[in-house]
Structures are given as structure tokens and as C-alpha cells.
Amino acid sequence: MSEQSATPMVPFAGLLSRFRGSSDLALALGVMGIILMLIMPMPSWMLDFMLAVSITFSVLILMTSLFIEKPLQLSSFPTILLMATMMRLGLNLASTRLILSNGHEGTGAAGGVIEAFGSFLMGGQAIIGITIFAILVIVNFVVITKGSGRIAEVAARFSLDSMPGKQMAIDADLSAGLIEEDAARTRRRELEDESTFFGSMDGASKFVRGDAVAGLMITFVNIIVGIIVGVTSHEMAFSEAFQTYTVLTIGDGLVSQIPALIVSTAAGLLVTKAGISGRTDKALVSQLTNYPRALAASSGLLVFIGLMPGLPFLPFMTLAALTGAGAFFFDRAHKESAAQEAEAEQLQLTEAQAAPAEEPISQILAIDPVRLELGYSLIALTNDDGGHSLKDQVKALRRQLAIDLGFVMPTVRILDNMRLTATTYSVMIKENEAGRGDVQPGMLLVMDGTGAPVDLPGQATTEPAFGLPATWVDESMREEASFRGYTVVDPATVITTHLTEIIRDNIPDLLSYAATQQLLDELTDRDKKLVDDIIPKQITVSGVQRVLQNLLQEQVSIRDLAAIIEGIAEATAYTQNIVMVSEHVRARLARQICASVVNVEGSIPLVTLSPNWEQRFAEALHGQGDERQLAMPPSQLQEFIEGIRKTFEEQAMNGEIPCLLTSPGIRPYVRSIIERIRPATRVLSQNEIHPKAKLKTLGQVA
């Protein structure tokens, strides 16, 4: 029995899957069918079938709009609305052709559906049918269609006006580290889809209004022209022609207006659902029964109306009993729910007061990449103060580092530390202290840009980020300090500046394997093809990580990651030495590196190595590949360091901040020495000078 019943289902399932696979063809055929209805005549039996399809389609649209949870789940509604309107207009034209051509044959000339609807509505009297039909048209046109169109217009306007603010909120959450890039991209796509949907609904509502007007005009034309044709062409009596063509026309109008009314209701439900979360039935029931007092008041009013003389007693008393019972049961349910919530809160409070459970080992081993610890007097700096709080400045720092270096630094965890003194802060990089300082809340730090002492009354100190002499002064002296040309900063800015310098010094350590993989995953599809070609065939993700760390170590931006990957692909074709690969990538980024070191005159100030030092460094290199090392005698190293200090101090006295230019082969080894004595000095090789760069040679390290 089961085998016999299952056998017919197999062809049906295959037919259904085949239909889904060719839905585009079915849609095209459907649109062509609607166009043919406007041109070619249709037999009455086919008209009956298509009218049934129209009614079914409109009911399906209404039910779908009821069960969806948010409007974007039916984002194709404007297109559906257009197709439904075109179908009804095509059926109106086909039925008009049958009514005017065969109306003299009787009320069945346009098919059984139109005849049944016309006879049922009119009840044998034409004037009643015309009146009821007119009321249906007025309800659809004046009430539902006009209201839905107005709501769609307002929703489209407000959705468009609020888009910039919503986009800024998404960007703020992304920069603060509250959401990931994928979540931000999804929220932006939903925002764009929502704006497009409500804009389309604003235009689609005009279809419904036009459909109602067209139905009214078609009905009027059918009655007048039908009577004229019946009386003049078919020699019918006026009363007979009026009765016959009225039944046909009103039946045709009713068959068209009922689906139009259903679709208009669906459109109204869809545009009014913008402020409702969840399914319509659950939202309405939960919101209408959320206030039992309203049900009780309604029950009392119904009792009063039912007792008034002349009014029917039973209907009002029945409704009063139902609303009163609903008020009683819903009130009891709400009290039970409130009691359960209070019990749950008390249980949570009891559990919180109990001895805490042992902390999982994984949480103990977790390390914060960047942590800012504050003394108790500095906690107030984290409060919102017009966008100038410590938290806001840290968010801005993360965004700025992403722009400058192409690296999204980890979220900075800010917490208080009672072991610190009240005005002390500490910056931790991977659980190790990288720097600390003292700030005075409620005061301002004043510095002289030349490094001279500040001639203002206050507490002398040293600026923690750069070690410049500074003074803490009262906030009332801000204008005087600014008038004298001093640099004035608030405590939150002092901490943020120090944090910025510490992060820049330690940024290679913050670029983890996971962060490198995320940067590679966020490349465009065209660039990912190159990544797939070289990883892991030519280099691993760890190798890419080391190259990026080498670039960040010297403050070279990795924002142009696609060019960096191209440089890695070229270099790994002939070497696996990460140092040599990094040097080749730097040569590929020559334009970017040169642009980052130009002065206000648009030129690159340079100090070169003498040929003697070039030869000494080249001769001091021993080994091959990754084992290549610099083995220079300590006396020569000391001589080189003294020469560097002397040359750069002379240039600093002249107001210049030059770069050191070397040959490509020795650049990384010269840099390894320079970074210990002058970490801010940029060391460039001759391969990194862009052909169009303007150079300014200031001296030579002899």
C-alpha cells in the first residue's frame, strides 16, 4: 500500500524540481500571457480559470504579508504588485470584449464566474448591485489605497533622511571594535535594501490607486456601451439590455475589485509593519493584551451600553463578558509572569553573592593585546564629555592608525588598577608594561615647542611621550598659555598621545597570525587570486606576517596590501630570505615611502653614507640566506655611531630632519644599528627612491 501511494509522488517531485530550475522561463511566459490577454480574445472557460488564478494570487499575497516577520522578507512586493495589477487589467479587457460581443446572449456570456458574482451581489435589482459596487470601489480607493500610499511615502522619506545617521552609527561601532567587518557589511546592505524597498513601495502604491480608478471607468463604459450595443445592434428592449449588461458589468467589476481590495490590504499591512517586530498575529495579540485594565474598562462600557433602553441586550452583554474574562485571565497571567521574573532575579542575586566558581583556565591564560590601567583619580576621564573623553580619543586613535598604517589595532581594554597611585596610568602590551606616566585631572599640560621651560606658575613635570619639559597649570590659564604660543593639552590627550607612541613602537608585535589572515581575507576577489597562487606554494601566512611586521617596524604603511602581495610574489620566485623579500617589497612601495618623508618644500632631505662606510659594511657581512649577519668590530661600530650622532645633530640645529640613504645590500643592517640610537630616523636604500622624487642632499656620514 505504501509503495503504491509513494509511486505517483516521484513524477510530481521531479516536475516540481524542474519547475524551480526553470522559474525564469515560467515568469517570462506569464508576462507574455498577460500581454496576449491585452491583444487577443479569450474564450469564456479560460476567463473563468484566469479569474480564479487572480483571486488565488491575491489571497496568497495577503497571507504571505501576514506571516512574514519584517518587510524586507518580501522585498519583491513592488514587482508582485505590478504583475498582479497588470493581470487584473488584462482580465478586465478580456471580459469587456466578451461582454460587449456576446452580452445579448444572456448573463452567461462572459463565463460562469462573472455571472455568479453579478447575480449574488445584485439579488435581482440592478440599482443595489451598482450601489454596493460603488461602495467597494470607494473603500478601496479612498480608505485603504490612499492610507497605504501615504504611509509608504512617509516611510520612504524618513528612511532616506535617517540613512546618513545609521551609516555613521555602523562606522562608529566598527571603529570601536563592537562589531566585525562582516557584520558591518551586512548591516550596510540591510540599510540599503530597506531604503530601496520603501522607495519602491512609495511608487508601487500608485499602481493600486490607478487600478481602482481604471476599474471604475471600465465598469461605467461597459454599462453605457453595452446598453447602446444591445438596443441598437441586437434589438433588445432597454430594460432587458440594462438588466443583462448591468449583471455582467457589476459581476466583472466585483471579480476585479475583490482581488484589488485584498492586494491593497496586503500592501497596507506590509508598509505598516515597519515598526513591528515578529509576526503580525503575535505582535497584535501581545500588545493588545498587555494592558488588562484597558480590557476591563471596555467591559464596563459595554455593560453600560447594553443596559441602555432600546439597544439589544444580548450582543453587548456577551462581548462584555468576553472582555471582562480576558481582563481577569490576562491580569493573573501578568502577575504570575512578574512573580517568576522577580524569583529569577532573586535567584541570580543569591548566586552572585555566593562563592564564585573557579575561573576557567582558558580565561586565566587569555592575554589582552593592549591594556590601559588607570589610577582611581583618572577613572573620570573615561566619561563622555562632548566627544573628548578618553574612550572617544582611543576610538579615534584606532581609526587614525588604520588610515596611516593600514592596520586595525586590537581593542584597547581600559580598567582601573588600585595598585597604581591616584594620578598614574600604565600601558600594557601583552601583559608587559610598555610605559607609564602621571597626569593631573582638572589641569592642563603646557609645553614649549622649542623644548624651553614654560614660564607659567604651576607644577613642573616632563611630558611622558617625548620627554619634553612641561608644566601642569590651572584650566583658567588656557587663554594666556595659548596667547604665549605654548602647546596646551588636557589629561586625556596626554594619555592618548603616549598610548599612540607606545603602540607605534610595538605595532609589529600586535600584528598576529590571525590579524594577518583577516587582512588577506578582506582583499578583493581579484587580489585573492594572487594570494591563492602564492600561499602556501611560495610563502606561508607566517612568512607574509613577518614581511608585514618588518614594514610596520619602520612605520611603512601596509594599507596597499595588494601591491605588497605582488612584491612578495615577485621576490619569492628567487629567494626565501624574509629580509630580502621585505627589501624587494619596500622597492615596490617606493612612491609611498618617498611621499611619507618629503618636507614642506616637497623634497626628500637626505644624508648619505660615505663610500668608506659602504665598503666597511659590505665587508662585515658574513653568511648566506637567513644566516647572513653583520660582524663589524666594536670599535668601528662605535665610530659609526658617533659619526651618525654628529651628522644628524648638525642637521637638527639647522632645522632639518633628514633620512639616511644607503645601498640596497646593507640597508637592513644599517637600520638595525640606527634604530637603537635614533629610532625615528628613516633609513632608505637607493632602490626605494622613486624616479620622480625631488632630492635634497644635506651631508654625508664620513
List keywords for this structure.
702 residues; disordered N terminus
Provide a descriptive summary of the structure in words.
The protein has helices at about 1-5, 10-20, 25-40, 45-65, 75-100, 110-120, 125-175, 180-230, 240-270, 280-290, 290-305, 315-355, 360-365, 390-405, 480-485, 490-510, 515-520, 525-535, 540-555, 560-570, 580-590, 590-595, 610-620, 635-655, 665-675; strands at about 370-375, 410-415, 425-430, 430-440, 445, 460, 470-475, 485-490, 605-610, 620, 630, 660, 685, 695-700. By secondary structure, it is of the alpha/beta class. Strands 2-1-3-4 form a four-stranded mixed β-sheet, covered by helices on one side. Strands 6-7-5-8 form a four-stranded antiparallel β-sheet. A four-stranded parallel β-sheet has the order 13-12-9-14. A hairpin with a 2-residue loop joins β3 (about 425-430) and β4 (about 430-440).
What does this entry show, briefly?
The protein has 25 helices and 14 strands. The chain has about 700 residues and is of the alpha/beta class. The longest helix is centred in the N-terminal third of the chain and has 52 residues, at about 180-230.
Order of strands in the sheet with the most strands? 2-1-3-4
What is the general shape?
elongated
Q: Count of DSSP E strands?
A: 14
- Structural class assignment: alpha/beta
Unreliably modeled segments: 1-13
Strand content: 5-15%
How much helical structure, as a percent, in the residues? 55-70%
Radius of gyration: 40 Å
The end-to-end span amounts to 102 Å
Query: What's the overall average pLDDT, rounded?
Result: 78
Largest sheet: 4 strands, mixed
Count of helical segments?
Answer: 25
